[in-house]
Amino acid sequence: MKQTTEESQQLFNKKILENIGKKFLRRKETIAVAESVTAGLLQYGLSNIPDAASFYHGGITAYNLGQKYRHLQVEPLHAAAVNCVSQKVADEMALHVCERFGSHWGMGITGYASPVPASGNKLFAYYAIVRKSKIIARGKITAQKIDPPLLQLKYAQHVFSLLSKLV
């Protein structure tokens, strides 16, 4: 079944995304994202904003330690000890995606969308938002057990809502 652009934009609040885009264009600043738990949803959302090519540099979805280390310079000993899910890992993802893409802003998110023993069967994600090499927002999103794709979407919506207030 073919999905229209309007239907795909319903995943996210259209006004929030348009607000983000307008603010980046007005500031003449750019953004890149590094994600794990959201599996590309942040990249998808940003790419659907009008004139995205003018401010959205791109993103990386890195699921495992090897790729997070290779592409995002995540500190491997710490990342291995926490199954790649911690505030420090999210911070490093956001900081290094800015460097990698040469962007003013960066977002990083890592976490769990389904219960696993490594998380104590709890669901949560850590995120970080960086501007000009400084962390300006960071935190932990906790969640109740719901369908993993819906939880991934909720994590992405949370970060977009926060970003729209910071830009």
Shape verdict:
globular
Question: Helix segment count?
Answer: 7
Contiguous uncertain segments of 5+ residues = 1-9
Q: Please estimate the helix content.
A: 40-55%
Oligomer: single chain
Q: Between the first and last Cα atoms, what is the distance in angstroms? A: 36 Å
Number of strands: 5
Cα-atom radius of gyration? 15 Å
Tell me what portion of residues adopts beta-strand conformation: 15-25%
Which helices and strands occur, and which strands form pairs?
Blueprint (H helix, E strand, L loop, with lengths): L4 H5 L4 H14 L3 E5 L5 H7 L8 E6 L3 H8 L3 H6 L5 H15 L3 E7 L11 E9 L2 E10 L4 H19 L1
Parallel strand pairs: 1-2, 1-3
Antiparallel strand pairs: 3-4, 4-5
Give a verbal description of the structure.
The chain has 167 residues and is of the alpha/beta class. It contains seven helices and five strands; from the N terminus they run ααβαβαααβββα. A five-stranded mixed beta sheet has the order 2-1-3-4-5. A hairpin with a 2-residue loop joins strand 4 (123-131) and strand 5. Helix 2 runs parallel beside helix 7 (148-166). The radius of gyration is 15 Å and the shape is globular. The relative contact order is 0.17. Mean pLDDT is 93; it is low at 1-9.
